Amino acid sequence: MNFGFTEEQDLLRAELRKFLDQNASLEQVRKQVESPEGFSRPLWTRMAELGWVGLTIPETYGGVGMDFVTLVVVLEETGRTLFPSPLVSTVLAAKAIEKLGSAEQRQRWLPGLADGSRIGTLAVLEASDRLDPEGIELRGQPQGDGFVLTGEKRFVSDAGKADLFVVAFRTGDGAEDVGLAVVERDTSGVSADDQPSMDLTKRVGRLLLDGAAVDAGAILGEPGVAWPTLAWLLDVGAALVAAEMVGAGEGALRITTDFAKERVQFDALIGRFQGVKHPLAEMYVDIESYKSLVYYAAWALDQDSDDAPLAVSRAKAYASEALPRIGIDGVQLHGGVGYTWEYDIQLYLKRSKWARPAFGDADYHYERLAALGGL
Amino acid sequence: MDFEFTPEEEAFRGEVHKFLDENLPAEGGRDPASVAKWNKLVREKRWVGFSWPVEVGGGGGDIMQQVVLKEEMARRKAPPLGSCFMGLAWVGPAIIEYGTEEQKQKFIPDILDGKYQWCTGYSEPDSGSDLASLKCKAVRDGDHYVVNGQKIWTSIAMWSKWMILLVRTSANPDDKHDGITCLLVEMDSDGLEVRPIKNMAGGAMFAEVFFNDLRVPVENRLGDEGQGWRVTISALAHERSGIAEIHGLLRSLEAITELARTCRKNGKPAVEDPGIRRRLVKAGTRIEAMRLNGMRFLTKQLKGEKVGPETSINKLHRAALEIELGELALEIQGSAAPLMKGAADVPDDGRWQTFALSWPEVVIGGGTPNIQKNIIAERILGLPKD
After folding, report:
1. Which CATH number covers residue A94?
2. How far apart are CA A358 and CA A248, in angstroms?
3. B147 and which of A77, A88, B211, B269 could share a cystine (Cβ 3.0–4.6 Å)?
4. Residues A272, A183 share a domain
């Protein structure tokens, strides 16, 4: 029985902290998001060299071959400082290729994703904003040994900088007739860009496909049977976003607690007042609790355990309710300065707005839990 | 990360299973005789006081064995291991740690055998959350302490033979904690009066206890004079996963879910109401978070680290759940909610009405949520003391 991390994982966390302390203070993060791509290429490359980008990609394809629990360590740390990077997007694209792709397809794409030279992302949602198979309406018209894709994908993470998109498309009229194709950015008929968004550390955009042709070599697995894998990828996505939410919650709690230890009103540090103490204690209770749920969800995904979907939904539901509250309370406890652009707490509030709907909000996951639990 | 048990732990689980298969009294047929037989059997197995050292008659069970035993007992809804609740929970551990040889021999076997009940005289009318401000006074007079004052919220005082009592032996204001001494008091002594208090559910589980020149022999002092505050905090290695209370909450949630299937709201089963569904799964999620938090505390303990103020996390969850589950059970019943036991139209013979009026026992009894939040804020987040 050990619901904790290995020494190796603790060491990884220490390395991450050191790296992020040097390169990703909130002041530095603010500068990094000002670039057109919204992140620092040199730091991304450095992270890839350190093995963090390819952490969960198999060693045969240039990765490190670690599990999701280990990746959670990385994401907690990057979440803490709101470090902008396409790590989650790239991991998900790589997992799609690893799970459904042939040896040839893996060889073609995974090494480039592992070494940071190429960025990947998942393109699933459409105008209906649904996470179920019915939400995938973009239809592939058969052509030769492949398909021609026309339609629009929305809310695509890192759309502006992704080199390859793992696109979910409809292959037939059956409820789960869903396929996954790897669409390269430079394919004719493909355009993608970021849209203005609230959380500057998370870029989200659109992918437009206008007669984009993908041959058989770009289709992952048999066309039309990708739904179970895609459902699994959406669970992985929810768990990874929730892991970043653990770090973000801790970051928000930390700066608000520090503020309460400095700010004096009524001749006392405001941290002495129970009206300030208690909401901070509640934040701590929530963060520690969804942290436990996230760790277990990652472990359940690694073990391919039957209760993985339940575990993921519990983690993401709890985190999606708690982090927005933490952001709002954090701003409120800062008083007037919390409302300013200058103070950092607002950055966490905005992160919560990005993270809440990503891979399903609390409404979605609680209802899924009810259905899975036979209610 | 791994959630595996060692072969030795699994073997112990097998032993527990076998014992339960052979000896667990049927749930419906738990008359006093079958419970007495159960108590005798588990006592012989040394599963009463399982975490206590073997030398004093305990089971010497290590932390993981304690978890396995509690988990299996809870899963099979077995009766409690031993019947002297407070004796097993904290009086016994305090005596094992601070008691004299004579005290150990006098009290520990009786606690393990469940011969009689112990009650706990800590809270006073003016010392609740701020327990260390207690005033009940004891003055040394030769071989005795003479006690004057009052205790309140003393659970099961009217059915107990002995009480563990905290008294003030030093009036020096600098000795807020160090002026407190622990005495073991026989309830049928002269100068001690018990007055039951009727609670809002209509029952009387706790009482006021008055002391009027009560004489307590010095040999019944537990620990040194002035050591009383420390005596109440046991350092014995109890497992801290909270596994038993989590199973209790899960059992309540299952029963309430069943209630939601049978009660109708707006012409449909209540379980189809979106608000009710949401609250049911939300409670389940919170319980699962408690279970996993408990696993993290347990992991810390197994690594030899101290588990301290973070246990307030689960105390806060438990408090919120005790209230929420009661409210949920009532709201599922719609207009039947304000009925009570005996009413023709009340589901489950009014069980949930009593449940919804009983949360203060846990929520206030174990240290109020506001106190738990202070503990987290001051001892974990490092905010200044009030």
Report:
1. 1.10.540.10
2. 15
3. B211
4. no
Q: How far is A50 from chain B (nearest CA, A)?
A: 23
Q: How close, in Å, is residue A47 to chain B by CA atoms? A: 25
Is residue A96 located within the same domain as residue A53?
yes
- Strand, helix or coil at A20? helix
Q: Percent of chain B having pLDDT more than 70?
A: 99
Query: Could you say which of A99, A114, A129 is where a domain stops?
Result: A114
Predicted confidence (pLDDT) at residue B235 exceeds the cutoff of 70: no
Residues A108 and A173 in one domain: no
Residues of A in contact with B67 (CB under 8 A): 1
Distance (Å) from the alpha carbon of A108 to chain B's nearest alpha carbon: 33
Full domain range(s) for residue A165: 120-224
Cα A278 to Cα B104: distance, rounded to the nearest angstrom: 42
pLDDT at B204 over 90: no
A298 and A331 share a domain?
A: yes
**Are residues A268 and A195 part of one domain?**
no
Q: Is residue A137 part of a domain?
A: yes
A275 touches chain B (CB under 8 A): no
| Boundary of a domain, candidates A66, A85, A114 | A114
Mark whether A198 and A272 lie in a shared domain.
no
Domains in chain A: how many in total? 3
- pLDDT per residue over B324-361, tens digit each? 999 999 999 999 999 999 999 999 999 999 999 999 98
Q: Predicted ipTM?
A: 0.96
The verdict on a CB contact (< 8 Å) between A1 and B299 is yes
Q: Are B376 and A295 in contact (CB < 8 Å)? A: no
> Is A366 near chain B, with CB under 8 Å?
yes
| Whole-angstrom distance, CA of residue A103 vs CA of residue A98 | 9
Q: State the CATH number of the domain containing residue A160.
A: 2.40.110.10
Q: For residue B26, what pLDDT band results from cuts at 50, 70 and 90?
A: confident
Inter-chain touch A1–B295, beta carbons under 8 Å = yes
Domain-located, residue A2: no
Looking at residue A118, its pLDDT comes to 98
In sequence order, the 6+-apart residues with CB closer than 8 A to the CB of B245 are B318
Given the residues B4, B101, B193, B239, select the one marked as catalytic: B239
**DSSP-derived secondary structure letter, A256:** H
Residue A175 — pLDDT band, cuts 50, 70, 90?
Answer: confident
Dihedrals phi, psi of B364, to nearest 5 degrees:
-100, -40
Residue B145 pairs in a beta bridge with B140, B216
Residues of B in Cβ contact (< 8 Å) with A277: 373-374, 377-378, 381, 383, 386
- Taking only the tens place, the pLDDT of each residue in A4-56 is 999 999 999 999 999 999 999 999 999 999 999 999 999 999 999 999 999 99
Residue B4 pLDDT level (bands cut at 50, 70, 90): confident
The answer to whether residues A247 and A361 belong to one domain is: yes
Ordered domains of chain B (ranges, CATH)? 7-83 (no CATH), 117-231 (2.40.110.10), 243-380 (1.20.140.10)
| Residue of B74, B78, B96 whose CA lies nearest to B87 | B96
Contact between B348 and B259 (Cβ < 8 Å):
yes
Do A358 and A233 sit in the same domain of this protein? Answer: yes
Mean pLDDT of B215-226: 97
Confidence class for position B241, pLDDT limits 50, 70, 90: confident
CA distance A49 to B262: 60
Tell whether A1 is covered by a domain: no
Q: Which of B64, B257, B292 sits opposite A292 (nearest CB)?
A: B292
Site from B243, B250, B280, B292 to mutate, A interface, most A CB atoms within 10 angstroms: B292
Q: CA separation (Å) from A101 to A58, A106, A237?
A: 13, 6, 19
* Residue A304 distance to chain B (closest CA, Å): 14
- Averaged pLDDT of chain B: 94
A263 touches chain B (CB under 8 A): no
Whether the pLDDT of residue A1 is over 90: the answer is no
Give the closest of B1, B282, B293 to A4, CB-based: B1
Inform me whether the pLDDT recorded for A294 exceeds 90. yes
d(CA B73, CA B42): 11
- pLDDT of B189 reads 97
Residue in chain B closest to A363 (alpha carbons) equals B278
User: d(Cα B192, Cα B119) in Å, to the nearest integer?
Assistant: 14
B239: annotated active-site residue = yes
Q: Is residue A367 part of a domain?
A: yes
